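User: Hey, my collaborator sent me this sequence without any context and asked if I could get a structure. I don't really work with proteins. Can you help?
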Amino acid sequence: MSARFVFPDEESGPAAQGRSFLNRRRNRHGRGLRGALLVQTLPGSRTREERFQDLVFESVEEAQSRFERELSELEVNIELIPPTAGLLHGAALGRGVPVGQAFARTPRNPPIITIFRRPVEDMSDDAAELPDIVNDVVAELVGELLAVSPEDVDPRYGRPRRR
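Assistant: No problem. I've predicted the 3D structure and written it out in C-alpha cell form, which is a compact way to encode the shape of the chain:
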C-alpha cells in the first residue's frame, strides 16, 4: 500500500511554484537536510513497524521450533489493518476487529498466517505488554492452522511473561 501526500501551498507566487512544499519546509536557508538523530545501530532508531516485525518473527520462530515439519514452509504476512470485507463480515457476526488470519496449506499454496499490526497494537496498554500479546496472537493463529489448541503451540499462552 502506498500513500501519496498532497499539501496545500502555504505561499503563492512565482517563488513558491518552483519548489514543492516539502523542499521549502525541510531545506530552509539552503543548509540542506538535517542528519539522523540516532545512529542506525541503536535500538531507538528502529520504527514501530520494524519492532513489531521482530516480535512476530521471534514468536513464529519459537512456534516453528516446536512444529518443524508442519511449519517448514509457513509464510508470514504482516499488514497494517484488516481488509474492509473482513471488517464488515466480523461486524455482521457481532465480532470485534480481527487480529489475524490463518490459511491452511493447499496443493498450490503453503500455509499462511497474516497478522494485522494496528489491531494487535491497540490491544496493549503499553509497550511492555506488546510482546505477550503478539505471542498469544501467533499461538492462536498457528493453533488454528494446525488444528491444535494455542496452549500446545505455546505452553505460556495467556499468561503474562516478563522479559
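In plain terms: The longest strand covers residues 75-79. You can pass these C-alpha cells on to your collaborator as they are.
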